[in-house]
Amino acid sequence: MSSQNQSVKQLLKSFPKRPFEQKALDDKVAKEVRKLESKGSLENVKSQWELVLRSEVFALAETEGQALQKDDAAYYGKLMDRLDLVLTFTEHDACDASFPFTVLQDLLETQTIPSCSQIFSWIEGRASRLTKGMIPQKGKALILLRTLNDLLRRLSKMGSTTLFCGRISTFLSGVFPLGERSGVNLRGEYGPVWEGVIDVDRGDAEMTVDSAKQVGPGDRMDVDDKAEDDTKKRVAESKDKEFYNTFWSLQLPFSRPPLFALPDTLSKFKEAVDKVLPVIKEATTKERAMMGNRAASGQSHTSKRKREPEPGDETNSSDYFFAKFLTSPDLLSLELADTHFRRQILFQLLMILHHLLTFTKTAKAAWATARNRSLQMDFTLEPADAQWVQETITKATAELRSTAPGGPAFADTVNVIFDRERNWVRWKNDMCPPFDKEPWDEEVDGKRVGLEEATRELREKRREDPEDWTWSLGSESLTEIWQMGYRDLTDLQNPFQVGDVKDFVKKIKQEDARIDMRKRTLARTAERIAQARAKAAASNQPAAESATPAPVSQDAQPPITEANKPEMSPHPPSTAVTSPAHPSLPPKPSTTTVPSATPALPATATATSTPVPAPAQVSAPPVDEQVQKFEENKQRWSWLALRMARDQYLQHFGKIGTGDILLLAQEIEAEKEKEREKKEEKTQKAEENVPNMGSHVVFALQQTRRYKVISIDNHHNSFPTALTRVSQLARDALPANPTPADLESAEITAHQCDLTSAEEVRAVFENYGKGGIWGVIHIAAYKAVGESVEKPLEYYANNVVATNLLLQIMSVYDCTRIVYSSSATVYGTPPKIPIPETTRLKAHSPYGRSKVMSEMIIEDLCHAEPDRWRAISLRYFNPAGAHPSGLIGEDPRGRPGNLLPLLAQMAVGRIKEDTLKVFGNDYPTPDGTCVRDYLHVLDLASGHLLALDALAPESTTFDNCPNEARYKAYNLGKGRGMSVLQIVEAMRKATGFDYKYEIIGRRRGDVPDLTADPSLAEKELGFKAPQPLEVMCRDLWNWQSKNPNGYA
Fold first, then answer.
1. pTM
2. Which residues are bridge partners to 999 per DSSP?
3. For residue 973, is it within any domain?
4. Residue 84: is it exposed, middle or buried by C-beta count within 10 angstroms (0-12/13-18/19+)?
5. Number of domains comprising the chain
6. H/E element holding 546?
7. In terms of domains, do 699 and 648 share one?
8. Rounded to whole angstroms, how far apart are CA atoms 224 and 555?
9. Which of 796, 847, 967, 970 is catalytic?
10. Is 847 a catalytic residue?
11. What is the pLDDT of residues 834-870, one digit of tens each?
């Protein structure tokens, strides 16, 4: 005995470090086993080894409590070493085969749950070795099953071991086949057995009664009142205690269904259920009343603040728990108020009720057999009791559906579980018959082979590349349709309708495709016939025969191949010729056409002494009827095409010979292409420009040499030449020795794109990346008041939608500074002149309202994201004038919509009108015509520059904002208005042109007076507009006289 003890201790001392090769431990154990195997009988030696090994394991297990407080890893490592030693000795037949399992069974009963988890991890890792040679229902298999079932029963009393239980169940399902009886717990004893509740005596109540007996006579009335209250309180407590005991008494049949075999169990159970269900229903009704509509909508909200989880709290046990470990009469009402608790009780109730239904007389006859006596009990559910069970199931299910949240879904899930459980119960009642199917096999060459071997040849064949499909488009019909020229479903859906020449060309090509297909078919048929004849002739005549070939019969025809097949004329001559409808048209095709000539067959020389008879006339191969029909169709389509095209395309008839429709279509397409090129060239010339306002703002930016200008323009009303001239002005203004930054500031990066196209604008910003563009001055817009009244949708789409798209893209690319070029028209007819910025916005035209909408969008954005966005709207009035050099100025496309450029073009002769139409002279102004606040375009450009500088982070412009949004609007103007007639007079002095004007009716959308109050911009931005009206007219005329045709 001491020898074995020393050997085990020596093995543990020299145990290899993990991870280790099992062979090293096997060699050491085998050496010790051989050393001591002759010390006694085999049984005695085994017993000694088992005793020593068991002692080592449990000597260590006794120290678990102290070891886990110091170093749990060291403890578990030593424990695993001893278990590995036990298993290795067993594998060397030094111990009984069931010895490791008996050690594990006793060890799991002595260890804590965390240690059991570690031990089970060892079992999982050694599963293949532990289960080697294991026979179900015998020996170590039964010990293992009993051990793990006991562990599951122990874990079921805990609230936080779900994962551990799952690991054990998964292990059992892998070790024991599902159809194996020993792997199924037929009695369902995984759950805890109900142990009853503790009856708590209320000692304080007795003390209250005793003190009540000692009161004096003077206090009798008060005592009586108190005694009455105490009596009511005791009665209520008695009822609560009685219900408490009744409620928890249900747990006994829940946990031990065989008790229904006792006489009084069912009647007591029914009485208890009938008392408990109304209380549960009342609790649910109260909860729904407190929750209101939230319960109906399936949502659950609570105003209670949840307790923060403390260290050691189990996070997965907060919803469900075993009530037996937390209950008392005082807590029961609180437990019933919990939805999860009520659902648990109802679920238990439905489970036991469904179980009882399997014990009706009819149900028992279906499943009870002599083989499953262990599942039976001496109990039969009578019809009256069965009816009560069925009614109770209905009530409990309805109560389950009424719980919140998600009661109907929870009840449906429970019903699905029960439906599936019936099949499981039926399988257990049948004593778990195996349902494993034998692997598929088949007899091949006299022997049975498996699926892989039987299908090997087929699988290898499938790996081969398939042959080319006969029909390139999938089927014969589809391929034929494609070859006939159909390219879309509409070609098949829509019948042919007379249209352009290209429609007839399409029909002619379809006829050509039909002819080609027919010829190929005939060629293949003739080739097969020729091959058959050659084969027959070879079999009838000797191979060595040298006789003269027989003369060819008149009726015999040579085979038609691609080499000798006769050419079929695409235009067979007609025998019945009618006079053409027009000299340019060919004769109308006749319905009967016969070919006039056919190619002659080559003569064959014969070497014979026999006189040759007179040669008979060899008939030409007959023309195929289908080919002839297709040719007639082609000629008919050609004639119809020429007839349709004679009026519109007669000039091309001299280029197409005798009526080649394909050539005619080519000539027509060439003419259209030339027209498109001319139109594009004209459009390109007409669409070059940058608006007057934009070009002067660019000039102002470049003069600072602090900004790199990026221009976005679709050239709807502008010329790129303007940008070239602005760049030239910037370069001319550079110092003698410019820096690289100065040179770069004089260049303009221009992008031709449309602000209404999000993709095009996004592509521009993508070039510079996030934060690459510092700020935006948004000037682009339609701006004619009169046109906006006629085309409101175009103005809203171009002015409002485009602004919204621009802001969205700017936000994506972190460009959050914008100067918006607005208009004074946002004020409509102002109540006060001059107009301050505080005036309400009430535009009268779609153009003015589009500006109001855009301002509101920008302001809302600044309010929504005050930490990101800075924006200024500039409400200016009527810009006029041009750059003093005359290089840049206003050159609108078409007829100008503003007064000053219209007068300039009339003076230069660009507009051939003698009279200016003035809209109304009955306004409340000095001369009756509209008054506007005109300012020089360069003054306006400087105002945009000041606004852009105010968006810088160091600016104090937004410090006096009434809220956190950094948005402001400013008027830019001179503060003095000029009427239409005053403007006409000023332009007369500047140009010397004698203007004539005519007063007509008012124009919708016009307001009498729009004169700015620029005092706020002067105060906060430092804005000034010093140029008078005379300078504006002089600079405008300088530009127009130097550029009479604008930028063209």
1. 0.40
2. 918
3. yes
4. buried
5. 4
6. none
7. no
8. 142
9. 847
10. yes
11. 889 899 998 888 999 999 999 999 999 999 999 999 9
